[in-house]
Amino acid sequence: MTYRVCFVCTGNICRSPMAESVFRARVAEAGLNDRVEVDSAGTGGWYEGDGADPRTVSVLEANGYDGTHTARQFQPSWFARLDLVVALDTGHLKALRRLAPTPEDAAKVRLLRSFGPVAGDDLDVPDPYYGGMDGFEECLEMVEAASEGLLAAVREQVEGQAA
């Protein structure tokens, strides 16, 4: 059985495609490609069909990740097929939980940084869109830091499904 994870940010051109690419690499490194499916979306459809922000692509590729991406908008019907919906900030978390058709679906939504090392009270990955390259690099660092804990949580679920 495939475990499905979807990362969600605002427009699906900066944070969520970055998280998708990094986590897909972690899943591949762990040998779980055949058991874990990774994608991303935005809470809004402003950029639907567009590629990731060029700065996102640049930071990803400079760090050995795939920058290929096509933006799309998250649909409430997706909850039925997803196991985990990973929000990049508390605004996304609240929006996704409001979209969830059932309380069980709302419980599938978690903040990315809740899986990482202690981040203090602020679990948001800041939106780098209106800043410079340093914001995209900081975003990548936060995503990478949280991805290890997320992988451990997903691996536990996948191994639990196989048992």
Automatic annotation (TrEMBL):
Organism: Streptomyces cylindrosporus
Phosphotyrosine protein phosphatase I domain: residues covered: 3-153
Membrane spanning stretches: none
EC number in record: 3.1.3.48
Main EC class the enzyme belongs to: hydrolase
UniProt protein name: protein-tyrosine-phosphatase
UniProt keyword annotations, A-Z: Hydrolase, Protein phosphatase
UniProt family annotation: Belongs to the low molecular weight phosphotyrosine protein phosphatase family.
A Pfam family reported for this protein in Swiss-Prot or TrEMBL: LMWPc
SMART domains listed in its UniProt record: LMWPc
